[in-house]
Structures are given as C-alpha cells and as structure tokens.
Amino acid sequence: MSRSGEAYAQELNRKRAANQRAAADEDNNDSNGNGNKVAFGAAGTFDTDVYGSVRGEKSDMYMDSIGTGEEDDVDDDSMPTVQKKAVNYSQPHKFIEEVAAASEDTDPFADTRTKTIAERQSKYHERAMRRQISPDRTDAFIDQTPDNRSRDYGQVMREQMLHAEKDRVEREISDLAKSGELRVTGQPEKKKGRWDAQEAPDSSSENLGAASATPSQGSAPRKRLGFASLSAEAATPRVARWDETPGHPTGAVDATPSADKWSTTPAAQTPRRNRWDETPKDGGLNDGSMTPGWGMETPARGSDDVKVEDTPSASKRRSRWDLTPSQTPNVAAATPLHAGSQTPSFTPSHPSQTPIGAMTPGGATPIGTAAMGMKTPAPHMIPMTPEQMQIYRWEKEIDDRNRPLTDEELESLFPPGYKVLVPPMNYIPLRTPSRKLMATPTPMGGAAAGGFYMPGTPDRDGVGEKGVGGLVDTQPKNAELPPLKPDDMQYFDKLLMDVDESQLTKEEKNEREIMEHLLKIKNGTPPMRKSGLRKITENARKYGAGPLFNQILPLLMSPSLEDQERHLMVKVIDRILYKLDDLVRPYVHKILVVIEPLLIDEDYYARVEGREIISNLAKAAGLATMISTMRPDIDNVDEYVRNTTARAFAVVASALGIPALLPFLKAVCKSKKSWQARHTGIKIVQQMAILMGCAVLPHLKALVEIVELGLDDEQQKVRTITALCLAALAEASAPYGIEAFDSVLKPLWKGIRMHRGKGLAAFLKAIGYLIPLMDAEYASYYTREVMLILIREFASPDEEMKKIVLKVVKQCCATDGVEPSYIRDEVLPSFFKAFWNQRMAMDRRNYRQLVDTTVEIAQKVGCVEMIARIVDDLKDENEQYRKMVMETIENIVALQGATDIDARLEEQLIDGLLYAFQEQTQEDSVMLDGFGTICSSLGRRAKAYIPQICGTILWRLNNKSAKVRQQAADLIARIAPVMHMCEEEKMMGHMGVVLYEYLGEEYPEVLGSILGALKAICNVIGMTKMTPPIKDLLPRLTPILKNRHEKVQENCIDLVGAIADRGSEFVSAREWMRICFELLELLKAHKKSIRRAAINTFGFIAKAIGPHDVLATLLNNLKVQERQLRVCTTVAIAIVSETCAPFTVLPAIMNEYRVPEINVQNGVLKALSFMFEYIGEMAKDYIYAVVPLLIDALMERDQVHRQIAVDAVAHLAIGVYGFGCEDALMHLLNYVWPNMLENSPHLIQRWVFACEGMRVSLGPIKVLQYCLQALWHPARKVREPVWKVFNNLILGSADALVAAYPRIENTPMNQYTRYELDYVL
Amino acid sequence: MALPGERFHVLAQLEHLQSKYTGTGHADMNRHEWVVNQHRDTRAFNMSHPGLNTFIAVVENESRARTRFNQINRMIQPCGPPPEKNPLDDV
C-alpha cells in the first residue's frame, strides 16, 4: 500500500517538475515545502501551478527551424520519431481539456490497456496501412506457362508509370487550382460522382450511407477526391466502386490489383448482393445481408434487455437509446477511428431503428488493406468493427455489473430471516453526496447474535459471460480451438460454423485447416501455439503458398494487431519461408508490403524480425526475383514506399552479398528518368552502410563510385541524400578507406561553400565523418577550413544543423592536427555563446551531443579552461541546464583528473556542487555521480570542504521529504572513500551513528540507501572502528532482512555479508544462526544479485560459526514439503561444504542418504551435485568415497533420482580432470551410459552433459568407443542420443578422434581406408 | 516455470547448434558422409602438424610442401563419388 502511495506521489512530483518552468524553480523548489511563500519585501511571483510560467524562455513558442523540403522526406539515418508535442501549453488549458475529456465517454483504464500497434504508431507509420497487398506475380523462373491471372514485371511497371503520371497530373491540377486558374463550374446534380455526395439529399435511396462514408477517409483518398471533383469537367472517369476491379480475374480471396483502394470490391468474385440497392428486410438478422435489415430488429440481448429500460438512474449512455442514431455521439466516435474505415453506416431514413445502431451495422467492411482477404461475413454474426465491438463489450459489462440486484439475488445474498420493510413515513433520503459517506453507520455488533456470516457471491446471469458480451458465440465449433477475439471475427468467422468435413472441397478443407492453425497460434496457449506452428510448418508445401499467405498477410495488416500477435505471425512466415522456398516467388511483393513497415518500427525487435524475414525471403526467392519485384517501388511517388523499399533492399544486399547488387545499384543511381529512382538508389547504399557496418569495406570504392555523381545532381534532395550516404559509408568504414573517398572530397568541399540549409548540414556531416579517416596532416588542413563554416553555422537556428555542427566540431577536435590555441581563440568564444544556454538542455539529443562535444574539446584545451567557463552555471536557475553542466564537468574530471584545478576554481566548484545538489528535484543519478566523481578526484584536497558537505548531508538526512533523505544517504555512500582519504574518521563515526538511528525509516527506497551508506562507511573504516559497534548494529539488521523490497534486501544482505566476512567475532553464534535462517528465504529471491549475495553470506557465516550447527538444521530442512525451500537448502549445504571444506559436511550428508525417504535422498544428491560444481578440483579427494553412493543412486528405479545422480557425476567428472581418477570415472560411466534410452528430455540432457564431462576427464577416445557401439544401430531410438554425444566429441576434440576412428574396408566404388595411418618408416 | 512446450528446448537448441558445424552428424547419416568427414579430419590433422607432415613426406619421398598440397587436394572427394542414392533410403 505504502509503495503504491509513494509511486503515486512520485508520479505527481514528476509531472509537476516537468511542468514547472525554469524561472519558477528557485522559488518553488525549496525543499522545506514552503518555497512558494514570498519573502518580506521581495517582489511576488505568480503562482506557477495556476498560471503556468510567466517568465522563462518564450523562445520555444516560436518555430525556430524552417524545413526546406516540401514533403516529409526522411533523410536522416535515424528513425522518424513520433512528433513531440510542444511543451508550451499552460496548465489552465490542460484542466479545461481534462474536464472536456471527462465529460465524454472516456475509458479511465485506457492507460493500462495494452496498446495495439496501430494505436502507438505515428502518422508516418500509419501509411503502411494504405498500401495494398498486390496480387500474385508471375514467377519468371518456373518452367511452365505462367498463369495469366498473375501479373508480370511489364504490367507492374506500366501500372507504376500510370500511377506516377496520375499523381503528376493531379498535382498540376491542384497547382492550377491553387493559383486560381482553374475553377469548378457548376455541374448538373446528377453528374456528380459519388464522392460529392455530402451535399446530396439523404432521402434519395441511392446515396445510402455513402455520405457518411466520405469524410472519414485518410488523406490519400482525399487527394484523389479532389482530383475527381476538380477534373469533373474534363470528363473524369467515374471513380466509382461499381466498376469491378479492373481487368484481372483474381483468385478466390485474392487482392485486387488496382492501386485505388476505393475500387476494390471485397471478395471480387463472389456474386455479392448489392446492398446499396436493397430495401431493408425485416428478417435481416438471418438473411445474410449485412446492413440495412439489421437495424429493423430488436437484437436479442437476453434477459437484461428489458431491465435496462427499467433502471431508474438514467445513465449517460442510456440517453442514447432514445435518440435518433444520427445524433448519437458514439456513432461518430466509433466510426472514424481509423483512416479509411469507411463504414457505410445505417440509413438515417429509418427512424424506427433500435438502439443497437450504435454499433454501426455494416461496419465490418474493413479498411482497404484488410479487405483483400474479405469474405462476406457469416450470416449469424453481427458485423461490427473491432472498435465498436470493444466499446459495446465494455458497455455491456458495465451495464451488467451495475444493474440493480433482483429480489432473488438479494435473497441468496442475505442470511435467512431478512424481509423487506417499508421506509418510515418521515424518512427523507440524503441528497448531498458528501454526507452520504458518513451517514450509514456500520452495525457494529448489532447483528452479532448469529456470529459473523459471510455469504458467497451468487452467480448473476450474463455477468462475465464468455464471448462478446454474450452477444455472439466466439467459441469455434471445434472445442479444441481457443475462442476468437472480437477483432478476429472477420478472419476466422468460418470456424464458427458447423460444417460437414466430407462436403468440403480439398481447397476449402485446406483453408479451414490453415485457419485453425493460425487461430491456435494467434490466440492459443503456448502448447497450442507450438503445435499449430509445427503443423503449419510441416504441411506448408501441401497447403501451398497462396492459401497460406492469403490468410496470414491480412492478419498482419489488421488494425487491431498487437505486438505479440504480430511477432507470432511474423514467426509463422519465417518458418514457412524455409519450407516453401522458391514457391514463394509470386508472393514476394505481398510479403514485402506487409513486412517492410517492420523495418522502420520503433521497436528494435520488430526491426530485427523484419530484417530476418526479408533476408530469408531473399534467399528463398533469389536475387532476380527480388530485384524485379522491388524495382517498380523504387520510383514510387509515395516517399513512404521508397523509404521502406530502400531499407528492404539493404537487407537483401546483406543477405545475398553486396557484389550481387552492385550492377543494379549502379544502374539505378544513374537513372535519367526520375530523380526518385536516383534518390532511392543512393539511399539503398546508405542503408547498406548503416546495416552492415565495416562489411562494406571490400566494396567501398565501388559504392562510392556509384553514389558520387549524386553530389552534383540537380535535385537538392538527391544531393542531400548522397552526402548523408557518404557520411554513413565513412562512419561504417572508419578508420580505414580514405582512398576510396578521394574522388568525393572535392565536390564535398565545393558543396559546403555553395549550399545553405539542409543541404549544407548533410555535406558538413559527410565531411565530419571523413575527417577522422584522414592523416593528421590532411585532417588539420581540412579542419581549419571547415571550422570557418562551422563557426558561421553556430548561429543557425535549425535544430538539425545544430546537432550536426556539434558532431562535426567534436570530430574535428578529435583529430591530431588541430592546435589548442586555435580552438581556444577562434572556436570557444562563439561556441559557448551559441550552445551553452538553457535551451540546449531541453532536448535530449542536443543535450547529449553538447556534453560529448564539450568533453572532447576539453581534451584538447585542458580541463581548467572549460570548467572555469561553465562552473558558475552550476548555480543556474534551470535544473536541466545545471544537470548538463554537472554531467559535463563530471566527464571532464573523470577523464582528465582534478590536478589542474586551482584553489579558486576548486572553491567555485564545490560551491556549485553543493548548490546543484541541494536544489535538485529530479530523480536520477547525474548529480550524485558528479558529486562522487569530482570529490574523489579532488582526493585529499576535499578535506577543507568535508565539514561543510557533511553538515549539509546531516541536515538533509533530517528532511521530511523522502527523496531528499535518500539523496543524502546516497551521497554518503559516494563520498565515504574520500572522507577516509581525508582522515575524517571521527566524522564518519558520527555519520554511522546518525544513520543507525535512521534505520527505522519507513520508505524502502530510503532505507535501502541508508543501508548502502552504512555499508560504505563500514567498508572504509573497518569493523573494529565502526560506530555503532557491530554487536549493536547487526541485531538491528536481522529484522530488516525480512523486508520484501529488493533494494533493501540487497543492501542489507551486502552489509551483513561484509560483517560476516570481516567482523563475525563481534556477534554471538546464536545471532548468526538466526540470520542463517533468514537467509534461506533470500536464496529464492527473484533478483540474481540478491541470491548471489545470500549465497556468499551463507558461506561466510558457516565459516564463522562452524558447519555443524548450521548443517544439522539444514538437513532437517530437507524433510519439508516445500520444494523451493528444499532446493535452497541443497544450495546452502553445498556452500557450507565449499567454505568449510567438504570433509566437514560429506559424512553427515552421506549418512542422511540412508534415510528411506525419496525427498531427502534427492536432496542429498542434489547437494552433492551442487557441491561438486562448487568445489571443482577439490573433488579428487572425495571421489572414491562417493562412488558407491552414486552407483547406488544410478541404479535407482526413480527417474528423477537417476537424473540428479547423472548431474552429480557430470560435475564430479569435470572437477577431477587431470587428477588420474579415470578408473572411478570409467566405473561411473558404465552406470551412466544406459540412461541414454530414457524418454525424459531432462534426463537425456543431463546424460549428454555427463558424457561431455567424461569426454573431458576420461578422454574422447574412450567415449568414442562407447559411441561406436550405437552410432549405426538399427533402431533410431538408440542412434539418436548417441549422435548427440558424438557431435559433441567432434566439436570438442575432433583432432583426438583422428587416431581412433574405426578402420573401414573399401567398397568397389569407394576407398574408405585411410592409408596414411598405415605408414611405417 | 517450465512450460510443457519448452521441454525440448535445450536439446533442440543443442541439436541446432551442432548442426551448424561441418563434421557433425545425425541419425539419418549414411556411411559415406561419415567417412568423408573422417578423411577430411585426418588430412587436416596431418597437414597441420609439422611433425606428422614431415613424417608423411619422408615416407612418400616428396617435399614437405608437396605433401601438404597433396593432403589439401585429397580433401576433395576423399573417398570417391558418393554412392547412388537408393530410393529406399528415404522411406
């Protein structure tokens, strides 16, 4: 409880800190908590909590960088990050928004839900959803007549050109329109395309729903809309959905080839009823038409249908039921959630509609991309978009839970004897909610006559029902399958139907099987998933590529996909790729459309997975197919497509080798036809460099030659990307390969003088990465030249330019040729003027870059120069800025030491440190680290300041804010070594006592820090001089070991361990015993460092008080039921035997083995196994003693028992390597070997391990001879495990086996004898 | 902790790991493949131990470099062509 409370408080603090403006800091952050009071006579400030900041930088309200490109080109090598929100909102506005938000139906748990991928993606990423999965393409390499349904390369290219041309015309027209030269003349009403339907009267039955469909589309179609309407006079082709998909007769659930998704008719070939022309039928629920009929009927909502009407308290939601659907806010909210989720909603012309209209019948028409696997929904399911389904389900659940209890339910809740009373006549119910809480006193003891009675909760119908709020059954008919999620309906609906398997055609059966496997993989438990994955992989070739991908790819494009699901689907693709191999060729483009977006995902693992798939795809399909498939996308008009294609190409290059791709790249980069192609080609090279790193070195020359022409391109974008590409190549090949760049130095050089803005930034970046490659002589020349431009650009307001300039300055300063005096005189003044300001600290990337660059410059000009310039800023009013200063000074001092710092600077430094430390409000270790590093590098010189520092610490330890106390304690831990160095032992003793007094601390984080501080003091002044004395300290620590908080546990056990190690004599044996048993619990801690500390401490204690007492109790512990505890005990026994020598323990545990109880015997064996693992070669003295016991154990019937024994043998074998115990080992191997036939994988694993141990200690030849008996055994069951062992032999000691392979006679065909072995001289 | 599906995990991993190296085998290997590996191992061993290489050179009355070269060359199909695949093998 206290933890969550604290977490909440922290959260609040963090939010507040983030919102506070720098200006308010000094007044506000006074740690006493009364910082907002205005001093007498001082000018008052506005309350920042209410008014927001009134001072501070206004600058970030203005746009300080100007984009040079027109479209959102992502040229940077980094990922397009999610746009950061501007920070300059003021709080009152926020409150208004909050209230406004709360008034609508919001989900208070929205934060806690796992977000779908679509929800967390940026606008740029969302473009992936707009791509359509293209139809199959011809496999040019297959020797059969190509299926005329598939498109070949030529067709695709023509389409691509058409598309580009269309885009160009569109743009021209819109330009004309913008300039006012083109006007839309009035059109006769009936000639309007359906897109102009907004104004159309909704009474006309033709326009059903189309009107509401239009506004919710994404931007791309909107562009097209403009196109259609603008050019209407020029006899526009009707961009009408009634046109069936152009041309290509596609397969059953195939995608439609047209680029225009609005013309994709779902399930093109199904003779679908045209729902627009249909009059709504009454029996709509069952007749298979999705939309209009549905509205007419009251849905079967079961028993609660009526009750909702009855509920007296009119909930917000309830009001909707009375409204006409078009006014319902939720309809609007539900529909446009996704760009392009055009839900042709129900007709407004049916006022008789029942309230279920909120679900937007017909909403199941998925968005364009999902549509390609579309089928008409199964008749019995109610079509809803996943979002609507979700909303509906929540509402249903809340309604169910909040509906009033019926009399029967009350009856079952109360003990017998209650009856309903009429309220007294004078009873007036309370109306003021605040008094309600206090009003009803609990009947304490009033009804106590019958004793306490706690009735069970009776089941209520309909609550927590399976399926979608009880509305639709989501359990597939095959009961072994997991239930569907509402979002899955459109993909898996067929499984909900009961079908007769024998009636199905082969294709249908296969489709159903695939569907079942996919559902298992997507929604099932791990074992189900596993079997699904295995089956789908095994049968991949049987099902064929088409049916598989037609089901998997739509799932991957689903808008409600979550990370886990995507991962699983991607895994499926990966597995089946291996199996399908070249069958995959016609589907390469489809797969790429789905997988390419992964390459620019925010999630690292998604990117890796994407690469993996594409590289496997490239290997399966071959280079030629990959190129012919991706070629059309290279000059696609959409920048998104080009970007992802370039990245995919880079992956292909890494999979198939750079040389294979070079000719193609050369051609693309020299393309005359379109600059987009050149741009993409160069970007491919850039991505290759980023992806493959130094692997580009062998081809560096060729790559540079390919891109170099781009530097003089007439398109600015191409020049920019070329420079960035060269930067990437130089970065990848550093520090080699300057020769390859010779040809580009001059153009780059000219470039930085010619260009401005974004282009210049890219050129500078390229130069910056090239300079570290050069010789010192050249580097200094180039640096001097480029510096002039850099200094000029210091003043640039562009953020991107700033980052690049900083980076290049750093690279220049790192080279040998630059004189410190030059930097000091020419660079530093403007550098500090331009960069060392508060605004730089606000952006994380700027912050990092500035710190790095400053540290680098300090390396050149010396630390004093730099520190002196920024030390006063440690007292700056902006905390983020102070942090930046602190981090810079820390890094400089850590690198260069503090010897150069003079007395005056030292004083300033400490002064600033103390100020910055005391004023910090944010929780991170920058200030602490800085303080620690600087103090320890000052060493003895810090002595003068210790009293002051300690005074501050002591005072702050007493602070009422937990955070402040924690920081103070942490600081003690940091400076303890320095205090020791300064011989401030008395002070440390004092600190120890104070900390000791604070051990009652209730905040675990603080307590942990206090323990850490005590530990630090203890470690430096030693156990004997420690105050408080150890004998007082330790008993105080014992109860703290029970604390569940990990930080407390870890620090406490470390401290106890240190005492046990070096000061055990100060504490009675009894106390140590007590601690021992506390420690047993800690052996099962989650955190590894805690377990390890516990194990070490255990050893120290056993050493201190002798093994006998400890061991007796431990052995008793083996008898307990709890497995976890027994395991911990065995570990403890092993540790004791390691620290106190095995002979003190072994007799006792071997004796314990005679107890006829399997748990105890297993425990003993396990302890032996751990013991042999820990004691290593000490085992040579005990092996003959334990062999009889192990033999006995290896002949035990119980499998687990033998398994542990085999494990013990393995550890033992490895331990005695080289000590001549072969006789005993051989004896043991004879007992271990027969276990190879066991079924348990655990046992087999241990057996393989033991054989590996034997290979080491007994020699590979002995083990080989055992293997040879079985390698060619007729029974696979025998062969299989032995090959595992043989393979280990090969991997471990291939050489040694040469002499021991059996002699094999020649056959007439082959010569098998190795004659060299017969040579005798 | 251990899920039933993960039981084969370590062993499967081991198998996968082993299969990445040349010279390793499996239960469905035939004699020819196995012996070829032995031959290559042997030749590699011979040529990479100078003493052994010299020994063979003396026996064969060749120069050491020639011996070494021969050893390397003999790693190509050391046992002759692989036997005809018997269609029954796959069953």
Automatic annotation (TrEMBL), chain A:
Residue ranges of the region described as Disordered: 1-78, 119-360
InterPro entries referenced in this protein's UniProt entry, alphabetically: ARM-like, ARM-type_fold, PP2A/SF3B1-like_HEAT, SF3b_su1, SF3b_su1-like
Keyword Cell wall biogenesis/degradation part of the UniProt annotation: no
Record-annotated Phosphatase PP2A regulatory subunit A/Splicing factor 3B subunit 1-like HEAT repeat domain positions: 1103-1181
Compartments reported by the entry: Nucleus
GO molecular function: mRNA binding
Gene Ontology CC, one term: spliceosomal complex
Compositional bias (Acidic residues): 69-78
UniProt entry keywords in alphabetical sequence: Coiled coil, mRNA processing, mRNA splicing, Nucleus, Repeat, Spliceosome
GO biological process: spliceosomal complex assembly
Biased composition (Polar residues): 201-219, 340-355
Coiled coil regions, renumbered to chain: 864-891
Superkingdom to which the source organism belongs: Eukaryota
Skewed-composition ranges (Basic and acidic residues): 119-152, 160-181, 188-197
Cross-referenced Pfam families: PPP2R1A-like_HEAT (PF22646), SF3b1 (PF08920)
Keyword set includes Nucleus: yes
Splicing factor 3B subunit domain ranges (all copies): 312-457
Family statement: Belongs to the SF3B1 family.
PANTHER family assigned: SPLICING FACTOR 3B, SUBUNIT 1-RELATED
Name of the protein in question: SF3b1 domain-containing protein
Lineage: Eukaryota, Metazoa, Ecdysozoa, Nematoda, Chromadorea
UniProtKB/TrEMBL annotation, chain B:
Pfam family name, one: SF3b10
GO cellular component: precatalytic spliceosome; U2 snRNP
GO BP terms in the entry: mRNA splicing, via spliceosome
InterPro entries per UniProt: SF3b5/RDS3-10
The protein's name in its UniProt record: Splicing factor 3B subunit 5
Lineage start: Eukaryota, Metazoa, Ecdysozoa, Nematoda, Chromadorea
